[in-house]
Specification:
signal; four-stranded parallel sheet; 225 residues; repeat; LRR_dom_sf; LRR_N_plant-typ; binds 2-acetamido-2-deoxy-beta-D-glucopyranose; 4 helices; alpha/beta; single chain
Length: 225
């Protein structure tokens, strides 16, 4: 009983101190968002990202931001005219599950900074200017990934076999790149939750449709070319 009481009192004290400063309420997420904005060079699309008053969680109403229970869980920056690299500060949002950066002007190689986004389930990097090979250790991305869209970039080389480790993956959208190696049929064939797979419009080394794709019994959309 005394243990319970003590922890109750500690909890109330904690809530009291957290409640006394609006900046602390949100676990520092407002500050993190301002850092992301700065790291990205304050693009016009993020001009609503400003502290107007001290009401807590007002950042949940900023453009592109989705919150759940006051914590940022999604960033939707479709066609925000954002250029350059993805800042590592994004992964300071510990509950980030959904990241849509489609139709921007992002450059560089596959953004390994996102390996630290440990809650990530949805990643859309489609229609940007990414180049280079997918890293061999791409499975350092959250293994809870369900949707990965890299369509319409300039990625090259092989698909790493580590792609087969995302056992919860429902869609893998890789069409319209310059992948010119192999696509690891066996690894992809192990992704038994896959509902959507697109590999079309890539100069993959010619090969037959691998037998392993027969194991993808949940597949409802397959686009090869
Ligand atoms: C603070 O800003 C929020 C929206 O960002 C608004 O809903 C609220 O009314 C404002 N509060 C005050 C006291 O101005
Ligand atoms: C993004 O790319 C498009 C098409 O290439 C170009 O028209 C636009 O000016 C670029 N925007 C930025 C912010 O770089
Ligand atoms: C990218 O693919 C995901 C599924 O992985 C889909 O939900 C999303 O709409 C696609 N993005 C675009 C810009 O079509
Ligand atoms: C794939 O394309 C890149 C860039 O064009 C090239 O350097 C590389 O040799 C190509 N690889 C294969 C296996 O053709």
């Amino acid at each position: 009983m005394s243990n319970n009481n003590t922890s109750n009192i500690l909890l109330q004290l904690l809530l009291f101190f957290l409640g006394s400063g609006a900046e602390l309420d949100d676990g520092g997420e407002l500050q993190t968002l301002l850092t992301i904005k700065r790291d990205w060079g304050s693009p016009a699309a993020l001009s609503s990202w400003k502290v107007r008053n001290s009401s807590s969680f007002s950042h949940c109403n900023w453009a592109g931001i989705g919150c759940r229970n006051g914590q940022v869980t999604s960033l939707s920056f479709h066609n925000f005219q954002i250029a350059n690299l993805i800042p590592a500060s994004i992964c300071s949002l510990k509950n980030l599950k959904y990241l849509d950066l489609s139709f921007n002007n992002l450059t560089g190689e596959f953004p390994t900074a996102l390996y630290s986004c440990s809650a990530l389930q949805f990643l859309d990097l489609s229609n940007n200017e990414f180049t280079g090979k997918l890293p061999e250790h791409v499975d350092k991305l959250s293994l809870g990934m369900q949707h990965l869209n890299l369509s319409s970039n300039s990625f090259i080389g092989d698909l790493p076999s580590a792609i087969g480790r995302f056992s919860k993956l429902k869609s893998l959208v890789l069409d319209s790149n310059n992948f010119n190696g192999t696509y690891q049929g066996a690894a992809i064939g192990g992704l038994v939750e896959l509902e959507m797979l697109t590999l079309a419009y890539n100069p993959f080394k010619a090969s037959l449709i691998p037998n392993e794709f027969g194991k993808l019994t949940k597949l409802t959309y397959l686009w090869l070319s």
